[in-house]
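Exercise: predict the fold of this chain.
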Amino acid sequence: MTATTTTVFEQFESDVRSYSRMWPTVFDTAKGAWLRDEHGKEYLDFFAGAGALNYGHNNPVLKRALIDYIVGNGITHGLDMATVAKRRLLETFRDRILGPRNLTYKVQFPGPTGTNAVEAALKLARKVTGRQSIISFTNAFHGMTLGSLSVTGNSMKRAGAGIPLVHATPMPFDNYFDGGTADFQWFARALDDSGSGINRPAAVIVETVQGEGGVNVARPEWLRALADLCARREILLIVDDVQMGCGRTGPFFSFEVAGIEPDIVTLSKSIGGYGLPLALTLFKPEFDIWAPGEHNGTFRGNNPAFVTAQVALEHYWSDDRLETSTLELGDRIHTRFVGLTEQFDGLRTRGRGLVQGLAFADASQAGKVSQIAYDNGLLVETSGPSDQVVKLLPPLTIADDELELGLGILADAVASVCRAKDTTG
């Protein structure tokens, strides 16, 4: 990026910006799995708006519906008023998502972002149980507002709060000790031991796959044990599906693989379909004890997002084709990553569906790989407490040849950074 093109960003935009530092160009247009900058250079997007663009950029099916709605003078800002767009979304969500899964969740529109959904979930859990404490997990990420930060693990993000973050207790996530310690037994023992110093919490909040935490995947059996532990102790189970929901791991909900039914679920990012801000907090009907207006937000009625969300559900979730494709593409990435781990020192792979991670023993190498990939036209971000994981979040709708092109660019970047294993024996 030239000095001229960066001037307005450097002079007037806050230094808090981050992605523009990783990818120092000015993007102009986007379609499908591609972004183009103002100079015409194209970038294959394996970032997808941090998981907000599961159906790709400017998806033509969603765009047509959005344009038609706007041209027809449809409601844009509706607070929580009843609108035709909201009715269609709720009916489609009931018929395409909840009904086929035998789920009876009520739907709350808490505001436009994932952290709004999490804040609503935490408040509701405390209101329902009358208890204050929340159990969260190591390396968790749930958002940047104070309640969400209190259950987030990243020390840098927590420090930004500027005040103590209270009423939350972290526990070790699945495989936190690399299988060397029975971390779940400690959790259960601490809850039942009157000498542990842990009061019975209102809720446990968990991601089934920790994206920002480094693509840490919870085993289905671990999730089932967690759900059972919560049920037996009358603790509400909250699954944060903001990034991993809407098909990112294969099924619509990431917790389906474990066969559990959380008490509360948070959705955002790709629930809007087109990248428009939208968030949902789902909860079992018996927990709907809000007084009218007790939790609200000016932009909880983003009707254009209702339109694109409804069309996305109808178009992509009326059968299992997208889920099947996502799992197949995820297997292809995993196979390629396994090949890299066999070829180069200090690499491990992990993931589920189309969230896949390549972890580097030397954390500095992940950033170098990401930078080289960018230079060669591929956008991938890093995650984990030391940014030691290259994380892939391509659109679920990516074409086979696009996936192969991106994996080739990434493999070349890894080869240029990492030392090949000595196979001379």
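Check your answer against the key: The chain is about 40% helix and 15% strand.
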